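Hey team,

Filing this mostly as a record. A colleague (T.K.) asked me to run one chain through the structure pipeline before their review meeting, and I want the input and output archived in the tracker in case anyone asks later how it was produced. No errors, nothing strange. Just documentation.

Input sequence:
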Amino acid sequence: MAESKAPQAGQSAKPRKPESRLAMVRRARKINRALAELYPYAHPELDFETPFELLVAVVLSAQTTDLRVNQTTPALFAKYPTPEDMAAANPEELEEIIRPTGFFRNKAKALIGLSIKLRDDFDGEVPRTLEEMLTLPGVGRKTANVVLGNARDPRTGEPFGVPGITVDTHFGRLARRFGWTTEEDPEKVEAAVAEIFPKSEWTMLSHRVVFHGRRICHARKPACGACPLAPLCPSYGVGETDPEKARKLLKYEMGGQPGQRLKPPADYPGRAASAATNGVAAASTEGDGTATTEGAA
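Output structure:
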């Protein structure tokens, strides 16, 4: 990425002139190219081998961390490796395995429901269209787009290859900070961003933006002073601008820490996460385990 001069440490960004639609689109595409250089290894941060495992992992990821899901799914998939196995699961036994991910009762209900649907209506195969994916219990657009954009045929290894924009909390936050949209509703964010980028970029754009949101552009204290995108970002200055202080806010491989996957891709530059669950906080695990899955998923 060509370097541009960012605001000095401790200073807020200068007020930007009103930006035309064309200028915003050009800047957005520069941001995507910069993210591609920064995260050439961007990928789904859930461990999975099959489309069914990815689908289950994404459903479990609602309101918790991908790391917590990755620490939970080995035992889950050992006991229920196929939709047929999970469709026949004892709900209480399934709930106990997935309890660490939070909201375990509703997640168990969704997993059994979608497994029954896969078994009965799709011959035990994960469908390959958005319309069919959305018929599965507990599956909304975010889950469907993740699976369709990243799953591979277990027999041939060919990717499903259906482009999609995955609007989670990170993507929505950064889309607004980057000035791509002012929308809050995930479907409206998805529609707005889809008009800016070619369809061929949607899946990888999603990974790159989420990576950036988790590593640098955090919700509470973004590391503006350590962000390579600062010259392109209209929100520079909402976080820490001092370079030294900002570097201390970097997470995962950017901060010299393990990532979220127990089995990361070969090109991942950081360390694998630990399979131990001690000290890893699962979000929203209080209460009786009942809550919605998707929209949260």
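Quick notes for T.K.: The mean pLDDT is 91. The radius of gyration is 20 Å.
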